[in-house]
């Protein structure tokens, strides 16, 4: 059977098909009203034409009477009757089939009556009360049923002066179903000619719990999804809906189609409570999408191995909460070891990550130690990987038969061989640090990110923007980090664009408030919000501590610092640093804003050498390192003064040992470690703390001297 092909001109949907059901009813009602108005005018037009014909016939009759006498008047009257009869016959012959059967008899009767009136008017004249009354009464009688059948709804009465005009019912959007309202607005403001997507249709409506979803069908070949997505702001404006609540995503069926989701209830506005780590099959669930259909995912490991990640956003956008949620998810699995490097030298970006990480670090020096440790682990795992094969469950196990067992392609996280996630926050500060720049921090980090995935060593960074300077102008580094897990949090810089599923999205359109982001991990263009709670730290209690495999642990052990001091000791050291800084600034007392109202300042004993220094009652002499105030601020301290000044009892045991080694003349870090018996990381940490306290000075890389000794000519010459 021959198939009928549709002509090319029919490819465009007809106007009737492009009209939504509610709009179609409106159009039909308006058309019927227009036809009713035209029909109601018909009796009046016919009466006027009859009167005009009667006056014309009477005028001809009067002229004929003047020219030929009474005979001429008779001829005109007879001719008028014949013309009217002929006109009725011609009209019935050509238009009779068009007239509805219901009205045929009445219309021909009315036509015959009008012809009779015109003939009579030509004989006796229309200018008389009987003739005028006959015309008016006859018209009313003949048109009564016609007018009843073609009534037009009476428009609403006009409001009185000073009263608001009532809008038509169809414009009252508040009482209209949201789905019907959106379809009508799409038809009028988006699908019409000259609008963003002319000729488009909304089909396959799906009602979600908090949104409505349609498939947008367009004229094949007229547009593409990327073109529609570029006009999403105009689409949102045409729907008169917030742009953040209008989602446009590609269709998996047709490139000329799209999936439109309009959020009717904002479930993200009040925040999403964090209820605990959610790690499953290498994926961490972080927060719901705006339409409520699923949660966003951070892909820690997939079919190709471990994955890197990147989070960007302005201060307060929610990056730290995101990093904390990822870290807790990884720790809960028992298959990951988490390292945390904070670009803030004081380690203030995330106290939770400092407590949660297996190895926290802060500042350029400590983070460089972490990088060196991971580089060493990369070398060891490069030798280790060829000796492992995939077990029954896919986890690596040692090879027992090299002739039949094939080495693993990549090291996947397991309890026997845990993967390492290095979380680097404040990357923009690290990339701009001159000391790290001299040590090629960014190129070395790029190499680690590029090849570490195969060996179970990956990086997750946090920075304030997507711009290249935040990544040391290394676009390859930025690309490797964002390849699978890019979380773009709000950023007021409108020039920034995040590429999600091949399309550019501006993070500046995200609502204010922490946690809003776009992500690439789930392959959706929808907005999400990361779950967060003020008491997230309680979920970190009881998380398992995962030990590295012996080879990797041995590789990084020489870079890892000694065990951290207990919280009380760490607090005492920080308090002492603050008190010494106040003393060095010449502050005789703590600023009034920081002094408790119920307790005055407590002066140190005069024997401590700081009679003029007052500190809050929360601090005691045991927490403060007393230092003699110099006579003048310009006079440099001597070695003798340094030896006599500090109260070594206020220092930790490792710091005391390092100070004694420095005074004994040991300047290199290795010599100090050999003298004190401490590990190199512990020595480096103690030296950094002593430098902050003003008790040690670094001469060169790895060389240290007591404070004030750098002015000694002998030290200079050495």
TrEMBL record:
It comes from the Bacteria. CDD domains: HTH_ARSR. Keywords: Membrane, Plasmid, Transmembrane, Transmembrane helix. The chain crosses the membrane at residues 42-60, 72-94, 106-129. This is Uncharacterized protein. It comes from Pseudonocardia dioxanivorans (strain ATCC 55486 / DSM 44775 / JCM 13855 / CB1190). The lineage of its organism: Bacteria, Bacillati, Actinomycetota, Actinomycetes, Pseudonocardiales.
